[in-house]
């Protein structure tokens, strides 16, 4: 007797009456392999090759790390499909060459279903442009498509349209504006108007916390001004987002060990660097 649908993991014994000899019934025990639950999982789930790729540009965006972890936990939960951890790949601030190579490999592995998340900065020029790390490297949404014939792709980022005039002066792979005009005011105005309309809000502390002052002035504001003045080599501007990230880290560090913490917060658009408001420029 063969039941091909029954799995090979465990044995049970079955007794069958074979006949009668000298008035006694002979019973022969047959061992049958049996594991319904394991084979059912194999039949319903394991034959479907899944792949989840969660990409986050965590540089200066406090919520991206939370987005990635929240999505991972959702996928692993029963309500999210009970994904296995080895089916989920998390890529934070990947280099462009590295990411494109990994995507190429993934597309060659014949996955049946893919779930893709990008959380970070973005823009739009004929398609969605995704800024994947703090160095301004970008890919497009099409790079993340067709990993599997059935695919869900989530792009949690801004999609402000990049004007063609901006596109010519700002290379998408370096996203740092470089204007040669001598007038500081002209360069500043030009760069401000290049940014998307946005309402940026910076808070010196979180709700329920206190904002601390010293003999030299406010802690957070002092760190923010210092960050604005500290332009990195080769950069003509510093964005509000970058300055806030630096000031936030220094503020938290300066309050470490104190009885009260101070955790600056911000509301910032998730647009690419060239579309963000600046706080300072190189004279």
Descriptive key words:
283 residues, alpha/beta, Rossmann fold, Alpha-Beta Plaits, 3-stranded antiparallel sheet, 7 helices, 15 strands, 29% helix, disordered N terminus
What does this 3D model show about the protein?
- With 283 residues, the protein is an alpha/beta fold.
- It has 3 domains: 11-40, no CATH class; 48-156, Rossmann fold, CATH 3.40.50; 176-281, Alpha-Beta Plaits (2-Layer Sandwich), CATH 3.30.70.1470.
- The protein contains 7 helices and 15 strands.
- The strands form 6 sheets. A 4-stranded parallel beta sheet has the order 4-3-5-9, with helices on one face. A 3-stranded antiparallel beta sheet has the order 6-7-8, with no helix packed on it. Strands 1-2 form a two-stranded antiparallel sheet.
- The longest helix has 16 residues, at 240-255.
User: Which sheet architecture does the biggest sheet show?
Assistant: 4 strands, parallel
Shape: globular
Q: Structural class, from secondary structure content?
A: alpha/beta
Number of domains: 3
Spatial strand sequence of the major β-sheet:
4-3-5-9
Task: Report the count of strand segments.
Answer: 15
Please report the first level of CATH classification, the CATH class of the largest domain.
Answer: Alpha Beta
Q: What is the element string, with H for helices and E for strands?
A: EEHEHEHEEEEEHHEEEHEHEE
Low-pLDDT runs of 5+ residues are: 1-40, 167-181
Supply Rg.
Answer: 29 Å
What is the fold named in CATH at topology level of the largest domain?
Rossmann fold
Instruction: Specify the CATH architecture of the largest domain.
Output: 3-Layer(aba) Sandwich
How many helices in DSSP terms? 7
Helix content: 25-40%
What fraction of residues sit in β-strands? 25-35%
In whole angstroms, the N-to-C terminal distance is 87 Å
How confident is the prediction overall: mean pLDDT? 80
């Amino acid at each position: 007797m063969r039941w091909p649908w029954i799995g090979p993991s465990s044995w049970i014994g079955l007794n069958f009456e074979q006949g009668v000899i000298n008035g006694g019934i002979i019973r022969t025990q047959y061992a049958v392999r049996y594991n319904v639950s394991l084979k059912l999982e194999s039949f319903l789930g394991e034959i479907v090759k899944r792949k989840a790729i969660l990409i986050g540009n965590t540089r200066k965006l406090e919520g991206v790390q939370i987005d990635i972890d929240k999505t991972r936990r959702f996928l692993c939960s029963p309500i999210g499909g009970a994904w296995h951890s080895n089916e989920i790949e998390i890529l934070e601030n990947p280099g462009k060459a590295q990411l494109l190579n990994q995507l190429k490999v993934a597309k060659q592995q014949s996955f049946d279903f893919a779930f893709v998340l990008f959380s970070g900065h973005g823009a739009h020029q004929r398609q969605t442009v995704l800024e994947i790390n703090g160095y301004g490297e970008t890919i497009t949404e099409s790079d993340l498509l067709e990993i599997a014939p059935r695919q869900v792709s989530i792009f949690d980022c801004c999609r402000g349209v990049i004007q063609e005039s901006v596109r010519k002066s700002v290379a998408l792979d370096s996203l740092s504006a470089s204007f040669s005009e001598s007038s500081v005011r002209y360069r500043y105005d030009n760069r401000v108007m290049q940014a998307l309309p946005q309402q940026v809000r910076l808070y010196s502390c979180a709700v329920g916390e206190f904002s601390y002052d010293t003999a030299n002035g406010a802690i957070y504001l002092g760190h923010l001004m210092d960050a604005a003045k500290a332009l990195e080599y080769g950069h003509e501007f510093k964005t509000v987002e970058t300055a806030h990230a630096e000031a936030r880290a220094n503020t938290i560090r300066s309050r470490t060990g104190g009885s009260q913490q101070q955790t600056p917060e911000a509301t910032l658009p998730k647009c690419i660097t060239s579309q963000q408001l600046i706080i300072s420029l190189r004279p």
